[in-house]
Amino acid sequence: MLSRVANTLYWMVRYVERADNLARLIDVNRHLLLDFESLDSERLSAFWKPIVLSTGDEELFGTLYETAGSAEVIHFLTDDKRNPNSIVSSIFQARESARTVRDQLSDELWEELNSLYLSLSGGDMKAMAESDPGKLYASIRRAALTFHGIASSTTTRNEAWEFMDLGRYLERADKTTRFLDIANYLPAGIDGGETGAPGVLHWSAILRSCGAMGAFRAEYQGEITPENVVRFLVFSRDFPRSVRFCMNRVDQSLHRISGSPRGTFSCEAEREAGRLFSELSYGSAGDAFEVGLHTFLDQLQGRFNKIGSEIFETYVLMPERVQSRPTETFTPISAALAWQMEQEQQQQ
Amino acid sequence: MEMFEGYEPGKFYDEMFAAPGQVRDYCGPLFNRFNGLTERDFLARKATCELYFLRQGITFNVYHDNQGTERIFPFDPVPRVIPAHEWELLEAGLSQRLMALNLFLHDIYHEQHILKDGIIPRHYIENAKHYRPEFRGINVPKDIYIHICGSDLVRGHDGTYYVLEDNGRCPSGASYLLENRNALKRAFPGLFDTLGVRSVDSYPRDLLDMLHYISPRPSDDPVCVLLTPGCHNSAYFEHCYLAREMGIEIVEGRDLVVVDNIVYMRTTTGLVRVDVIYRRIDDDFLDPTVFRKDSVLGVPGLMNAYRAGNVALANAVGTGVADDKVIYYFVPRIIQYYLGQDPILPNVPTYLASEEDDKKYILEHLPELVVKAANESGGYGMLMGPSASKAEIEKFRELIIADPRNYIAQPVVSLSRSPTWCDGTMEGRHIDLRPYIIYGRDIKIVPGGLTRVALTKDSLVVNSSQGGGSKDTWVLRH
Fold first, then answer.
1. Adjacent-strand bridge partners of B383
2. Of B133, B105, B145, B30, which is closest to residue B331 (Cα–Cα)?
3. Looking at the DSSP assignment, which residues form a beta bridge with residue B80?
4. Is A324 on the interface with B (CB under 8 A)?
5. Partners of B59 in beta bridges
6. Per-residue pLDDT band at B437 (split at 50, 70, 90)
7. Domain-by-domain residue ranges, chain A?
8. Would you say B54 and B70 are in contact if contact means Cβ atoms under 8 Å apart?
């Protein structure tokens, strides 16, 4: 398939996944706030600031807003078009990508994404964000799930599909680590956690943001400790939002695209993905806490980025570097023809 | 109240009514279906059509940025009906015309017999803006130049069909023809089964067959692509739509590369050879090393590959000379010259400002005439004499005197009208018709076309850029 198209499909799905994750994150934290009684503005800011930090857009936030209260952060992450990674911006970019590669998508898939876009670009969205934000986030999550569902039931399992999958699982792995990282930004004792560590409420909020609460309980019978949460969200073999699960899929897609067997590599992206996947397969939560959770997560994010840029290098930049090679310059008119034309002019 | 109650056909040729209250017999079944609708039901169905266009993304952006709301192109649900006997005439006339235009282009780019025989004065060709002398003597695959033609037809007072212009470069709008039908089928699911309307579904297949046919490389499975200016082009929806319907890649200039006079596309698995390009980019932008140097849309080296015969282009380079409105004047003679036949479809009477007698007539009758620049389209560069202000008329007088080669004039054709929903009532609005003619192994015309409608009362300008909408076009089986 065309390199440009592969790249566009990859980003289309990444943006949908991004919007989905943000909707989860904001919604869960809004709910979490309800568990606290009257936070003053300073503590409120201490609560929301980590959310912004986790998205990596704190600099932009700082230039746009003076305070980090609920209203500001929620607006920044939800429908602020000045933030290229807000939910609305993500959906707009996903839809613009989809429009560009419309010929690759099933009718239903396009219609779903376009409908979401239309619903977010009308005036209704603003009204809903104010009157019933929960419903807004639920509808975005539902649309993202529907999008993935339609994609998986109407897309041929070809290269296009693998590039879409790459976008989804790289974004998801990245977001899962960022959710976990929120714990590291929280100030001491904000929700009653002893000695500065985030408490159970926060760890369960992180689980809920990943839609992992039920699955986690089934595995650990409700014992919400930092070790268990990290074990589950980073190292679980079977939970579809865990980093390891995502890396398995990334590695698999990369090998399906190149045709080389798993366990070997034919490009840097495969090498990095394979190495990371095996580290996660044989690693444990202890590794994470040994280097420090924040550092551990930070390193993971760096490696996701590396995989992403190597994919771009191999499948988009390399084909683009082929330059045109004309064997002759274009001669506007041959000498014989010029002579003939001159003769014809004379006859007039 | 019935939908067509009080409908006034006026003094024009009306497509549905022969006289007030008197429905043309072939429109009877359609009239009955629509007339029986309540306004509420009609509006609900109209809304269904509009929602369909919106959801399909057949829209344009009002403010050209992300903030703007998306609008659909206006669509009127009342179809325009063409009975079988009229369609037969159109098919014969359009085929004849396209055949002659192709022979003409081949001649112009080779021996130029028609100039040597004095049928068309040489200077008209050599001064035609879109004439490409650098392609003289070059053979194009299967000797076909205009592969897709979108001639614009209008009807006069008595219902006679006239060819208003030939669009032999990159005619657009075929996707609207197809999507108008899809929208109407959704809104009126029971409408089509008994009325004997011919299907338009074959268009993408015919288009692809033609592209395969002109491939210069003997192969069972030539690689065809659609070359688009990109996703910011206003016709991008159509490009995507047609590419998807045909199952071919849609490419931008940057996706293609020419190595040793062979065109390739850049794919994730390396370079893949391209045989046929259905290009939706004008000649000027195709190859920055030959035409406009500033074009970033094209492919450097493409013209060399084309001249070397390694890639086919649809349409060929240089067909614009046949679109020139001065050359239009000569089309009846072109048909006579190459085919020895009388034209089946007449031209609108035309005056050439570059001929002294005609110029005199034009300048004396400006308030009655339509003046057109020879190489403009989309309703630009035009003077509608009867509705123009004195200042506009004087402006055109100067333009014509300064550059007579660039202007033609025609009497106003009072375009036929079709009943159209206008804010609560059915009223007559002027329409035209753009059929799509494909020239490959043989000539095929999809039974239908894009009917454009001037939504503004009394307006004769149907272009979408100037307040026009469109309708579904029904060609009847009997």
1. B371
2. B105
3. B473
4. yes
5. B72
6. very high
7. 1-154, 157-320
8. yes
Helix pair A70-78, A87-100: axis angle to 10 deg: 0
Give the number of residues written for chain A: 348
In whole angstroms, give the CA distance from residue A326 to residue B257: 10
On whether the CB atoms of residues A225 and A293 are closer than 8 A, the answer is no
Residues of A in contact with B307 (CB under 8 A): 330
Residue A194 has pLDDT above 70, yes or no: no
DSSP A81: T
* CA A188 to each of CA A197, A224, B284: distance values in angstroms, whole numbers, following the listed order: 6, 19, 67
The two tokens of residue B234 are: 């206003």
Band of the pLDDT at A67, cuts 50, 70, 90?
A: confident
Tokens 């592209």 locate to: B211
Q: Is-contact B264 B256, C-beta < 8 A? A: yes
Among partner residues A99, A322, A337, which is closest to B57 by beta-carbon distance?
Answer: A99
Distance from CA of A304 to the nearest CA of B (A): 21
A326, B134: Cβ pair inside 8 Å? Answer: no
What integer pLDDT is reported at residue A300 of this predicted model? 97
Helices of type H across chain A? 3-34, 41-55, 58-64, 70-78, 87-100, 107-121, 123-131, 133-154, 159-185, 200-209, 213-220, 226-235, 243-258, 268-282, 285-291, 293-312, 318-320, 335-346
Question: Concatenated DSSP letters for B351-397?
Answer: EETTSHHHHHHHHHSGGGEEEEETT--TT-SEEEGGG--HHHHHHHH
Q: Which residues from B are below 8 Å from A328, CB to CB?
A: 304
Disruptive mutation site among A8, A10, A82, A102 for chain B (greatest number of B CBs within 10 Å): A102
Give the CA radius of gyration of chain A.
25
Provide the pLDDT for residue B318: 94
- Distance (Å, whole) CA A65 – CA A59: 10
Express each pLDDT in A110-146 by its tens digit. 999 999 999 998 777 878 877 888 889 999 999 999 9
Across the range B211-221, mean pLDDT stands at: 91
Question: Backbone dihedral region of A192: left (phi > 0), alpha (psi from -120 to 50 degrees) or beta?
Answer: left
Quick one: A79 exposed, middle or buried, by C-beta within 10 A (0-12, 13-18, 19+)?
middle
Task: Judge contact between B170 and B279, C-beta under 8 A.
Answer: yes
Check if A103 contacts B (Cβ < 8 Å): yes
Q: Do A92 and B66 touch (CB under 8 A)?
A: yes
Confidence of residue B375 (pLDDT cuts 50, 70, 90): confident
How would residue B252 be classed by pLDDT, with cut points 50, 70 and 90?
very high
Domains of chain B, start order: 17-82+173-199+435-475 (no CATH), 351-411 (3.30.1490.270)
Q: Nearest chain B Cα to A106, which residue?
A: B244
**The pLDDT value given to residue A205:** 86
**First vs last C-alpha separation in chain A:** 54
Q: Where are the alpha helices (DSSP H) in A84-158?
A: 87-100, 107-121, 123-131, 133-154
Of how many residues is chain B composed? 478
